[in-house]
Fold this sequence. Notes:
The protein contains ten helices and eight strands. By secondary structure, the chain is α/β, with parallel strands linked by helices. It folds into two domains: 3-33 and 115-244, Rossmann fold (3-Layer(aba) Sandwich), CATH 3.40.50.1000; 35-112, DNA polymerase, domain 1 (Orthogonal Bundle), CATH 1.10.150.520. The chain has an eight-stranded mixed beta sheet, with helices on both faces.
Amino acid sequence: xxxxxxxxxxxxQTNCKRMIKAILFDLDNTLIDFLTFKKESAKAAAxxxxxxxxxxxxxxxxxxxxxxxxxxxxxxxxxxxxxxxQYNLEVNQAERIQQAAIIAYLKKKxxxxxxxxxVKLTLHELRERGLKLGIATDAPRNKAWQRLxxxxxxxxxxxxxxxxxxxxxxxxxxxxxLASEKLGIPPSEIMFVGDNPVRDIExxxxxxxxxxxxxxxVWYEKECKADYEIERFDDLIDVVRKINSGGSEx
Length: 250
């Protein structure tokens, strides 16, 4: 499969020339800089733990936080309690340290969690072009909506599908199919934009969607079979223009 680059956008020569009527997005590391927020918030939590008496260094506490994430998932909600319990502290001291971590984490989260550059303006232009927009995310429903409200993106989408709606994660087809049904548009007329070559790109492609890899998100050293690849979010405007003009505007 030969990839061509133009205007900072990568596309495959084998792309199907299909019109798109909707775009589905992954949320974390596609619309919002989730990894940066997670790292910085975890650092703040580790620092707060040490300040309240956890017998460890900040680096050790930070490492233990991510060890829990690695074992139980990045969305696991009892991470700080699991870390504190490893030290067998007196119950009130342990609770004090845990709550300090939670407060520091949330404070940093509310401070730094933002959409990627040009996300809001690009979404607005896509809607102006008559496209329906949706989200299909592996985040729990409450966390997905919290992030959307916090970043001011909560009114931008026609549908929001989360892990709670289908009880499975991408690349399982259920999430993509449900989103298609809710949008009222067949998969062949939907483009999916995400940062993960397996969960997002292979999953969407398997149900017949056009695919676009967000290279600015978490980059995986893996061959990707996306139809398009973008280096900035607002590159989507050119991708949509290319697809819906049959390539004549490229």
